Amino acid sequence: MGKSWSQSVWIPNPPITEKNVSDQSGKVFMITGGNSGVGFELAKVLYGANAKVYIAGRSGKCVLEAIRLLRAEIPSSGGDLVWLPLDLADLTSVKIAVQELERNETRLDVLWNNAGVMCTPVTVKSEQGYDLQMGTNVLGPYLLTTLLHPIMRNTAETALISYVRVCWASSITIELSPRGGIEFDASGSPVLSNTKYTNYFVSKAANNLLAWEFGKKCQKENILSIASENISLFLMLQQSACVPIAFNPGNLDTGLTRYLTLPIVGSIVPRLISLVMWPPCYGAYDELYAEISPDLTIAKLTGA
Ligand SMILES: NC(=O)c1ccc[n+]([C@@H]2O[C@H](COP(=O)([O-])OP(=O)(O)OC[C@H]3O[C@@H](n4cnc5c(N)ncnc54)[C@H](OP(=O)(O)O)[C@@H]3O)[C@@H](O)[C@H]2O)c1
User: Fold this and answer.
1) Across the chain, what does the average pLDDT equal?
2) Catalytic residue among 93, 204, 225, 285, which?
């Protein structure tokens, strides 16, 4: 665990960046929340590598502005950028988004479950009445992935081994979630906390568990499912026949912290935090590695 935390502060050099990324022509990616923060930086690298990138987001204004900026920054790209309307906090919208994608595409190479909210007040609910963090970070991505599974399975049939991937943005903060990641009640429902912080940790632990379950389900279908770092989960996975892989998006200076209410001791706390925050492109390099690195294969990682 020490290594995980220390790597969040003294980050290693990213192996893949916009400078050496391989050509992604012909591949179709979907990045949820690709209009800002880490997702935006990731879209930039992929678009620059000639990929077709669906930026799935809830605000047309924000996504279209992001697309405008990316097109202006990389005029030479042979790829494409498309807005896919999606509100993860509304399960109906998830279904409509998948139908829209399927109308326009016969393949989806990589789904990046990147969008998320952090520490929203416990009183704020998703459209279907769930805690907003659980709704946005867990239930929405779960439904999205489940509905996109058929198109990804078809893509994987003719794709190179382990090239079709589902990635889940987790967080090192899952180390702070309850034992096992999530506490379930007798009926099998997750027990949520009264504190918005714990609910964020739980939602991110849930991303790992979903990655694990989805990995098990689809490893024979040539689809690699990846979430982020958790040492205990990693050890657990070592004893199973699924696909463990660890990465932590990082401590990144993005809009994610907008709902944080930190104790302010003078201005010391924000200043200390800013010392360990990195530009969002480093999170994108992490996500990029998970998405396309040939180092990561189902065969190599299964049971590793
Ligand atoms: N920043 C970090 O240090 C860090 C560390 C570990 C993990 N992560 C994870 O990395 C991921 C990306 O976060 P970020 O740091 O890049 O934060 P960010 O800049 O706030 O980006 C979050 C994205 O999620 C989108 N989103 C939120 N609610 C949504 C909904 N209901 N439907 C569709 N999209 C929605 C946002 O769209 P709007 O613009 O419409 O709000 C935004 O584009 C998150 O899952 C986060 O938990 C971040």
Assistant:
1) 86
2) 204
